Amino acid sequence: MNLTDKTLERMKTLTELHGAPGFEDLVRDYLRKEFEALGAEIISDGLGGIFAVKKSKNEDAPVTMIAAHMDEVGFMVTDIQDNGLIKFIPLGGWSTDVLLSQKMKLRTKENKEITGVIGSVPVHFRRGDNKTTEIKDMLFDVGADSKEEVLEMGIELGDSIVPDVKFEIMENSKKLLAKAWDNRYGCLIALEVLEELKDTELDCHLYVGANVQEEVGLRGAKVSSNLIKPDVAFVVDCSPANDMMGKKNDTGQLGKGTLIRIMDRTMILRKNMRDFLLETANKHKVNYQYYTSPGGTDAGSIHVSNDGVPSAVVGICSRYIHTSHSIINYEDYLNAKTLLIELVKDVDSKKVEELRG
């Protein structure tokens, strides 16, 4: 199995886009353009979520929702000091030990991206205990010498910051390095599944798209699920790999296939849905691995929306998510894509009845 040049180009574009929580418009614009190229009807919600619609010929068909999220973990400017250094707060979950000396891009309201680095104290000037620097004490350096110079650059309070990282195919070409696999992976698979099913007659109305502000509390999914009112939902998200120590029993290993996410802090996978995923994966020879997580996904909001929605996460794992650089294995992506396509093909009124039983 290999990726097409088209998919690789989409990966590069999507992962390099600037899209912190609340600032997803560049990602949304890209998805809108791609959905329009497929001739899809497009709907959006009041927070900024966007979905393409593929209707079944059967007007009474159930509604299937495929939901990614556009946002990546980032930061927001909160103060500009007189010496030109910038204070910021996190948007989403960051560990302090992955931030110092990292190159970032600050995006202004004029859509200008300004390079900067999160400052660190050189070892030469450190004395005594090397205590961990908390995020509230960190400073972002854009090379300015004064507050006035920062303002002249067009930087304002409330601007967003994300890592400055280029997409790269690694020496082992199955491994792909980028920022924001969480969750541009989901945006990509949503787009490519819609493309794959473009000319396929389905027994469900299909809504494919992406939410906003997942990284700050699954906010966008609350809105989009109330708008779409799905009968079944598949959330596509990227989860942390746990394979760095080489232990065979650790969950979330690169190259072992798509994830059957049986539980996280926001949702327990119901038995009926678990069986549906396993039967479909086995039937179509999809590589998969069981997965549990201390985190959550948009499925946590969607499955308790309206009168309850049978939901599952069709995900992959990535090393080092919620940092500047993360790594996936593209074979996991291809397995997840195959599984998601086949799941959607099998959704009809009878299947929804089974899943709700």
UniProtKB/TrEMBL annotation:
Zn(2+) 2 binds at D182, E215, H322. It comes from Phocicoccus pinnipedialis. It holds the Pfam family Peptidase_M42. CDD domains: M42_Frv. Its cofactor is a divalent metal cation. Binds 2 divalent metal cations per subunit. Gene3D superfamilies: Peptidase M42, domain 2, Zn peptidases. Keywords: Aminopeptidase, Hydrolase, Metal-binding, Protease. The active site is at E214. Zn(2+) 1 binds at H69, D182, D237. GO terms for biological process: proteolysis. One of its GO terms (molecular function) is aminopeptidase activity. InterPro entries: Peptidase_M42 (IPR008007), Peptidase_M42_aminopept (IPR051464), Peptidase_M42_dom2 (IPR023367). It comes from the Bacteria. This is Glutamyl aminopeptidase. Belongs to the peptidase M42 family.
